[in-house]
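Figure 6 in text form: structure in, sequence out.
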C-alpha cells in the first residue's frame, strides 16, 4: 500500500516538475536547437537569452508594476476578507448567511464572464490604464477564496479564548490583535500568498484594462517575443523563467504555512 502511495506522489511530483525543468533547459539552448531538437539536452549552455529578454521587452518596468499591484492588492484582500470572515464566524446578524451564500456563489463564477461589466465599470470610473484599476479588480476577484480560507481558520478557534481575554480586561481590539491574529497567522499567510500568485500570473484583466507600460504587468511582456514572421524562443523562455521565479520562490519558502492554511478545519476535535 505504501509503495502505491509513494508511486502516486512521485508521479504527481514529476508531472509538476518536468515542464518547469524543460522550460529552464529551453532557456539555455539556441533558437536553432529549440526548433530542431526541443526535447534534447543543450549541446552548449547559452545564457544570452536572459540579457536579450531584458532588451526586447520592458521587463524591468513590468516587474515593478507587478510588485506594486500584487503587494497592495494582497494587503487589501487579506484585510477585507479577514474582517468579513471574522464577522461571519463570531457575530450573529441578519446578513451573515446571505454574505456566506453570496461568497459561495461567487466561487462558481468564471472570471472571464465578468470581463465586460468590469471593463465598463473601470471605464466609467475613469480608471482605465491605471494600477489602481488592477489593484481593485484583483482584490475583488479573489475575495471569496480568501474569505473561505480565513473563515475555516476562525471556526477552529474556540470562543472561550476571547471570552477569557475579555474577563482579563482586554478590549475587542486587544483581543483581536493579541489572541486571534497570532492563531490565524497561517491562514493569513496562506490567503496572502495565494492571492499574490494570482495577481502575479493574471493575464486577461491586465490585458483588457491597460494599454501602456505604466500599468501593464509581467505576463504581458511575452507579447514582445512573438511577431508575424519571427519568434525569439530563447529570449522568450528566458523571460518565462524570470517571470515565474518569484512566485515559485515564495511558494517554496512558505509551503508549510500554505498547506497548514488549506487543511484548516479538515479535522475537528
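Output sequence:
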Amino acid at each position: 500500500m505504501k509503495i502505491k502511495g509513494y508511486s502516486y506522489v512521485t508521479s504527481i511530483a514529476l508531472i509538476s516538475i518536468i515542464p518547469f525543468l524543460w522550460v529552464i533547459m529551453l532557456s539555455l539552448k539556441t533558437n536553432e536547437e529549440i526548433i530542431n531538437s526541443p526535447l534534447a539536452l543543450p549541446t552548449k549552455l547559452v545564457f544570452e537569452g536572459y540579457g536579450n529578454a531584458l532588451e526586447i521587452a520592458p521587463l524591468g518596468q513590468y516587474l515593478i508594476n507587478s510588485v506594486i499591484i500584487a503587494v497592495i492588492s494582497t494587503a487589501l484582500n487579506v484585510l477585507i476578507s479577514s474582517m468579513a470572515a471574522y464577522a461571519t464566524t463570531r457575530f450573529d446578524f441578519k446578513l451573515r448567511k446571505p454574505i456566506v451564500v453570496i461568497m459561495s456563489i461567487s466561487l462558481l463564477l468564471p472570471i472571464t464572464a465578468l470581463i465586460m461589466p468590469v471593463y465598463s465599470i473601470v471605464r466609467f470610473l475613469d480608471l482605465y490604464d491605471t494600477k489602481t484599476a488592477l489593484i481593485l479588480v484583483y482584490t475583488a476577484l479573489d475575495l471569496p477564496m480568501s474569505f473561505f480560507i480565513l473563515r475555516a481558520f476562525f471556526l477552529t478557534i474556540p470562543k472561550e479564548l476571547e471570552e477569557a481575554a475579555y474577563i482579563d480586561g482586554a478590549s475587542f481590539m486587544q483581543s483581536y490583535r493579541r489572541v486571534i491574529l497570532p492563531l490565524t497567522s497561517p491562514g493569513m499567510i496562506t490567503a496572502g500568498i495565494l492571492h499574490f500568485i494570482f495577481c502575479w500570473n493574471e493575464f486577461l484583466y491586465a490585458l483588457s484594462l491597460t494599454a501602456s507600460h505604466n500599468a501593464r504587468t509581467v505576463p504581458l511582456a511575452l507579447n514582445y517575443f512573438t511577431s508575424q514572421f519571427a519568434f525569439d524562443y530563447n529570449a522568450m523562455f528566458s523571460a518565462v523563467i524570470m517571470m515565474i521565479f518569484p512566485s515559485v520562490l515564495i511558494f517554496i519558502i512558505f509551503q508549510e504555512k500554505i498547506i497548514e492554511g488549506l487543511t484548516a478545519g479538515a479535522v475537528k476535535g
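Caption detail: The chain has two domains: 1-45, 49-264.
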